[in-house]
Amino acid sequence: MLKTTLRLFLPVFLLLAAPLVSAAPRIQHWTTDNGLRVYFVEARELPMLDLRLVFNAGSARDGELAGVARLTSGLLNNGAGEWDADTIANRFESVGAQYGGGALRDMAWVNLRTLTSDADWLETALTTYITVVGAPNFPQRDLDRALRNTRVALQGRMQNPGEIAQTRFLETLYAGHPYASDPLGTEQSLDTIRREDLQAFHARHYVARNGVLALVGDLDRAGAERIAARIAAVLAEGEPAPALPAPPARGEATTLRIEFPSEQSHVLIGQPAIARGDADYFPLYVGNHVLGGSGLTSRLFDEVRGKRGLAYSVYSYFLPMTAPGPFMMGVQTQGAQAEEAIGVMRDLLRDYIDKGPTEAELAASKRNITGGFPLRTASNSDIVEQLGMIGFYDLPLDWLDRFSERVEAVTVDDVREAFRRHVQPDRLVTVVVGG
Amino acid sequence: MSPTRILLSLLLIPAVLAPAAAATRVHEYRLDNGMKILVQPDRRAPVAVAQVWYGVGSSYEYGGVTGVSHVLEHMMFKGTPKHPAGEFSRIVSELGGRENAFTSRDYTAYYQVLANDRLPVAFELEADRMQNLALPPEEFAQEIRVVREERRLRTDDNPNSLTYEHFNAAAWLNSPYGIPVIGWMTDLEHMRVEDLRAWYERWYAPNNAVLVVVGDVDPDAVHALAREHFGAIPARDLPDVKPRTEVPQRGERRIVVKAPAELPTLLMGYKTPVLTSAETDWEPYALEVLAGVLSGGGSARLTRELVRGQEIAASAGAGYNGFSRLDNLFMFSAVPARGRTVAELEAALEAEIERLKNEPVDDLELERVKAQVVTSDIYERDSIQNQAFQLGALEMVGLGWRAGEDYVERIRAVTPEQVQAVARKYLISDRRTVARLDPQPIDPARPPSSFDGHLR
Description:
The complex is a heterodimer. Chain A is an alpha+beta fold. Chain A is built from 15 helices and 14 strands. Chain A has helices at residues 68-75, 85-93, 119-134, 140-157, 161-173, 187-192, 195-205, 221-233, 281-293, 299-307, 338-355, 359-371, 380-392, 403-408, 412-422, and strands at residues 10-11, 28-31, 37-42, 48-55, 79-80, 83-84, 98-103, 108-115, 211-217, 254-258, 264-274, 314-318, 325-334, 429-433. Chain B has helices at 3-11, 68-75, 87-94, 119-131, 137-156, 159-171, 185-189, 193-203, 219-230, 283-295, 301-309, 342-358, 363-379, 384-396, 407-412, 416-426, 449-452; strands at residues 27-30, 36-41, 47-54, 98-103, 108-115, 209-215, 253-260, 265-272, 313-319, 328-336, 432-440. In chain B, the strands form two sheets. A six-stranded mixed sheet of chain B has the order 1-2-6-3-5-4, sandwiched between helices. In chain B, strands 7-11-8-10-9 form a five-stranded mixed sheet, with helices on both faces. Chains A and B meet through β1, α2, β8, α4 and α10 of A and α1, α2, α3, β4 and β5 of B. β1 of chain A pairs antiparallel with β4 (98-103) of chain B.
């Protein structure tokens, strides 16, 4: 009942997570004695603090134990130090602190939002958070329950054609690569995961040199340093996680059709594309904005939804990750229209790679991206997420300061060439579920 | 998707609306044509959100035209004589703005988030489409197909949404809250552009609109700018809004929904008053606290007792929203843990409800709920969009934005006896509707339409 997120309304189009960009708050950066990298932005207007610890501990690190990264993350607050799950939840919530965490393919994160205006409340929240991160004990009973509930989640996924499409798409694109496996794991892998595996995963990956701490809020530098030092003190120094392998080479174009009793077909089209830090990031980001990244004005939106009325949601994006992440185009449409939509999208992509955007389209996209720049750091929660991203992917500290000029520098030729280098329209994987 | 996320999206309980405490930061104005303007400065970043809210949504609709408010929302992006289809979005985009719109039971709203010096353009475009919407038939022909795809995506292919839609329609006999916001498919299939024009002419008027601006702005300057753009739009006679008060429920209702699915799911809703209808003014606040005791995080009873303690639920949640135009439901939703049945789960939920009736809530539990409300009130201020949303929504449900000003104090004043009293009064089986999703094999030869039988 306490959140404004559960609203009964229907937006005119589906918002997609935009790649993170930002105006330029003043970022302070240091590294603790044992190697935890810290990013801090002082924001004194509201009496609150956001903390975000990010570890290179996503499901790409699962190895044979598919699901272990997510279980480790999910069980941190189910028993730590002297406290059980009930006590931990009560310690956070009795002072109005909000704890959250999760793990996807690249990163695992642990967040805390707390008030700063009451010293006792702040201290209770911080002590609890630090214990949860540094001294979780993964009680057997909680693990058993988490394993059962993960099986329920796996089962739930099988009734959702969109999630089936996403899972099968990445499985196909990344066959043999750590990104291929589902962060939830499989019925079989869950059978093999033991308490010791979570303890070992935590000991290996939740370590200072494999992590980044972001802080935003009502603190000065000295206060931020004290908190960072307390967090670092409960983490072993450890080692950064090793580099991930390159994704498999792209094969011939393939189409995977999965039957499902849904009215709509859920379609994903794409291939592995770029890693964070790739020099082509800006031409691809700006170029994709024109193609399918910009809400109500992109080419895909205009052709598939605006002119043909084929779908409510149609989009494309590059997801830069530690190892090259995917480029994907997506649409959901009534089964009988699926082939038409797929044809339109493939043709659009081919034409776009061939000719690139027009000068006018490129200029319009640049105006949207740079003109909207101040919106990207308008809230503490925006800023802390970006600090975590900058730290995790080891982007330069002036990443935000120089973002707009790098966007401005992109030319039509840059876009066309970058797309040609990274997207091969004759080697696309297409997954169609249902319809 | 985790079971918890399934439940949250399925519950669809709107927010607790908890805006500013203490000294108000809201500036209120009214234009001669009746349009209200609310401005709340927030100078942390050089940006602003502008929202135009209209007092119309699916709870104003009736059989045959369900979904018309939402389809009209889509068509508001399809042009005026001055700015043809798509131009609104193109202009906002080139200004670096983000925009969207949303339709609910009680309102339809449009917003832009922009650098603060670009408000004049947003106002000019909003004022234009408030009075000059073109509604071209050829654009409508495409857009109504888009909305049907939206319905397939959100509801027809989603067993949880489908269950919620049937549950909701069973819970309300004559209240318009039984109407799905997106509309029934048959009504979407037979909607005509004339239906939209009539709806637009009936409801889109300055005296049925509220403009909310939050951000780095000067309130008087926003007022002057609003007068310049919206001031000349004539007021209209607004239709009589009938109360459509739900008939008293005479005994429990139970339904089963069969759909291709994997997970059984349980929904229960109890008829409750809201702030606009409560005869006893503390009751909605006591119901909010009750929801917090049951479902306000990992230490709340449903997670602590049913998910962790008894391990009978994979996920379980409760929710109540007292900030709606008409009477609402106190909702429970849950998915059984592996190896447990819906019947066991329902019995466990009932036992929790009985406990609330028989024992006053522990003081520490109450303090926890209140701490969460107090801190959420601060956290909400991190988002200019949430601040604006709360002001607008309070206006639309007929309470007025000031109802948010004393929210925290009203919650703080709730006693254990009051929580017990509302549990005894409202969480009784005669006021209840129960729906169970009965999963059917996921057989590609049997799409959802073969279960719910819509004709085509």
